[in-house]
Amino acid sequence: MKLHIRSGLTWFILLIALIAAVWVVISITRHNDGQPAMQRLSIGSHAPDFEGVNTNGEKIRLADYWGKVVVINFWASWCGPCVNEMPLINGVFQDHPDDVATLFVNAGESKGTIMEFLAAHQFEFPVLIDAAGKIAGAYSITGLPATYILNKDGAISQAIIGEIQNKQQLDNAIEDARGD
Predict the structure, then answer these.
(1) 115: CATH
(2) PANTHER family from the entry (predicted)?
């Protein structure tokens, strides 16, 4: 009897998780302002500007970072590959505080969920909250993780769709964006 109840509860939890995942994907891929969805951004094109609030309550605008290389990482706490690559991107955040801006954009989750995740994983970086998926929509995000590296002029230097494999891959992308 206990096994049957436990099995039913497991399936129920998996069903809820699946529904939540589908909802997040739908919310980050639709465009909320009535405009047609943008075409996938191309290397060399100017990155769409955006504005939002981070987990520290600070207003963030992408254009404020022009003049620096910018790493924009779209992620969610339920995304295994996102979680796997976070230490690498956190390393950029810590190693390059002055010359590389690192913007972590959480796609589709609430501030409470984000804060719980950060505390559980002992990450201290601020995260831009994109609960409605507006920023992800501007970047035509259809899967997570997705990382854009912008040069100092705000043009897209590289796009890494999927999990970043190693530190060298990320370091090379940053060096390319610097033009070194």
Answers:
(1) 3.40.30.10
(2) PROTEIN DIPZ, THIOL:DISULFIDE INTERCHANGE PROTEIN DSBE
> 103 is in which domain, residue-wise?
2-178
User: Which contacts (CB < 8 Å, 24+ apart) does range 84-92 have?
Assistant: 84/163, 85/145, 85/147, 85/163, 85/164, 86/121, 86/123, 88/164, 88/166, 88/167, 88/170, 89/147, 89/164, 89/170, 90/123, 90/125, 91/167, 92/170, 92/174
Task: Give the total number of structural domains in the chain.
Answer: 1
Tokens 């970043």 belong to 164
Q: What's the alpha-carbon Rg for the chain, to the nearest Å?
A: 17
At 12, list the tokens: 């129920």
pLDDT tens figures, 87-144: 998 888 888 888 899 999 999 999 999 999 999 998 888 899 999 999 999 999 999 9
Three-point CA angle 71, 56, 34, nearest 5°: 65
- By C-alpha distance, which of 50, 48, 42 is closest to 154? 48
What is the three-class DSSP state of 142? Answer: coil
Give me 121's structure tokens. 């994983």
